[in-house]
Amino acid sequence: MPALKPTDYTGRIAWIGRVADRTASLVAEPLSEVAVSYAGIAGEEHAGLTRPSCSRVVAQYPKGTEIRNVRQFSVLSVEELAAIAAKMGVERIDPAWVGASLVVEGIPDFTHLPPSSRLQGPDGVALVVDMENRPCHLPAKVIDAHLPGVGGRFKAAAQGRRGVTAWIEREGVLRLGEMLRLHVPDQRGWRP
């Protein structure tokens, strides 16, 4: 019996980006397509098979411990970016300002996809959803550079709408306009 089941939900790739050096700037460079390897997007700040652990997993590992990189991608949805902008009282939030790797359109409640879901492209390329990407304060400075005085509203507005982190399970090419089919784990929700 398969552990993952394809759904009828698909998301159109609406935006692709790469953050080359996060210490220099969180702003992502827009791309029309990108070949992805098991390490993610070549030249991307979050690329690599492993990474040093951060504050998100401090309950499991001391900060800086070498761990598997399940944060190769920051994936958001068009719909949730629009909701964040509305909550902030602005017309739009550019995905580049929040360091997005990928933005998809058409999958409802995107930030709350079950961990281990797959987003699979036409050539077989597959991203594995790790978990919800919690909002942080880092985009505030970038947003303020474009919309002065607004950046501080991002973290609260993005709560429950910041998308997911993901990693590459199968190499391939991601292209603007292509569709990604959602596959979800074939299991009931955990009941502690």
Protein architecture, described:
By secondary structure, the chain is mainly beta. The protein has a single domain, classed as PK beta-barrel domain-like (M1 Pyruvate Kinase, Domain 3). Helices cover 12% and strands 35% of the residues. It contains 3 helices and 13 strands. Strands 1-8-7-11-10-9-13 form a 7-stranded mixed barrel. A 3-stranded antiparallel sheet has the order 4-3-12, with no helix packed on it. A two-stranded antiparallel ribbon has the order 5-6. A hairpin with a 2-residue loop joins β3 and β4. It is globular. It starts with a strand and ends in a 7-residue tail after the last strand. 39% of the residues are buried.
In short:
With 192 residues, the protein is mainly beta. It contains three helices and 13 strands; from the N terminus they run βββββββαβββααβββ.
Topology:
Layout: E1 4-18, E2 29-31, E3 33-37, E4 40-41, E5 50-52, E6 66-68, E7 73-77, H1 78-88, E8 102-105, E9 118-120, E10 126-132, H2 139-146, H3 154-157, E11 164-170, E12 172-175, E13 179-185
Parallel strand pairs: 7-8
Antiparallel strand pairs: 1-2, 1-8, 1-13, 3-4, 3-12, 5-6, 7-11, 9-10, 9-13, 10-11
